[in-house]
Specification:
Radius of gyration: 17 Å
Strand content: 15-25%
Distance between the termini: 33 Å
Largest sheet: 5 strands, mixed
Order of helices and strands: EHEHEHHHEEHEHEEEE
Number of strands: 10
Number of helices: 7
Helix content: 25-40%
Structural class: alpha/beta
Length: 224
C-alpha cells in the first residue's frame, strides 16, 4: 500500500533525516514523500538534504528559510539576514563538494520553481500558517511562510480538509493549546497536524505517516 509520509523543518540535519526515514521503512518506489520546507540552514548538510528531496520527494513546498537562499545567490538583498538564519552552514555544505557553484545554481533554479502550498483530496500542505479570513488563492507569503497569523495555531481549522504544517515546534503548539505534551509526537489538534519536531533548537526531526497516523522521530544531536 502506498503511504503518504510528510517531513518538515529538517534544517540541514541530513543524517537524522535518513535515520528517521529508516525507522519509517521508507520505500521510494512505493511511498509518497512530501516535504513542507525549511530543508536548509543550521545543520551541517543542507546540500545533501536538498539533493535528497529534489530526487525523491513527490511534493516539496517552500519554507521561510528557502526564501533568502536565491536572494543571497543572486545578490538581490543584504546577505546578513540569510547568514543570521544559519545560511553560512548552508553555503559551507555546498563548498565541501566539487563544482559548488554549479550545484548551487542547479538547486537555486529548482527552488525557484516550488510552490508555497499543496492540496490533495484530503489535506492542505503548508509550511507555516493560513489566514482563515482569506480564500486559499489569496494567501500571502507572510502567512504561508512566516506564520505571522498566530491565531492559526490556536484556533480550529474551519475548512473541510485537514491542514498539515511545520514552522512552529510542537512544544509551542502543545503549550499554546493547553495540551498534554509529548515532544516526540506530531500534534493533531483542531483539524490541523503540526509536524515540526524542533530540529532548529536541537530537538527532533519527524517523519509523519499520514496514512497510518504514526510519528517517527530522531533527535538531531544523536547524529552528525
Amino acid at each position: 500500500m502506498t503511504r503518504k509520509l510528510v517531513v518538515s523543518d529538517i534544517h540541514g540535519y541530513y543524517d537524522a533525516l535518513v535515520t528517521c526515514l529508516k525507522k519509517a521503512k521508507y520505500n521510494p518506489d512505493k511511498d509518497e514523500l512530501i516535504c513542507l520546507g525549511d530543508m536548509i540552514n543550521r545543520g551541517p548538510k543542507s546540500y545533501e538534504v536538498v539533493s535528497f528531496m529534489k530526487k525523491y520527494a513527490s511534493v516539496v513546498i517552500l519554507g521561510n528559510h528557502e526564501i533568502g537562499f536565491p536572494l543571497w545567490f543572486y545578490q538581490k538583498t543584504d546577505p546578513e539576514l540569510f547568514y543570521k538564519m544559519g545560511g553560512i552552514k548552508t553555503i559551507d555544505s555546498y563548498y565541501r563538494h566539487k563544482n559548488p557553484d554549479k550545484k548551487l545554481a542547479n538547486h537555486i533554479e529548482w527552488l525557484m520553481t516550488l510552490s508555497n502550498m499543496h492540496e490533495d483530496d484530503e489535506y492542505i500542505y503548508i509550511h507555516a500558517s493560513l489566514d482563515y479570513k482569506k480564500p486559499l488563492y489569496a494567501q500571502t507569503p507572510e502567512s504561508l511562510l512566516w506564520g505571522q497569523n498566530r491565531d492559526f495555531f490556536k484556533t480550529k481549522n474551519p475548512l473541510n480538509k485537514t491542514i498539515v504544517h511545520g514552522h512552529v515546534p510542537v512544544e509551542h503548539i502543545y503549550r499554546w493549546n493547553g495540551l498534554k505534551p509529548n515532544y516526540r509526537q506530531a500534534v493533531f489538534h483542531d483539524n490541523k497536524i503540526s509536524i515540526d519536531g524542533g530540529s532548529i533548537g536541537g530537538k527532533y526531526i519527524f517523519v509523519y505517516d499520514l496514512t497510518n497516523k504514526i510519528t517517527y522521530a530522531e533527535r538531531v544531536n544523536n547524529t552528525k
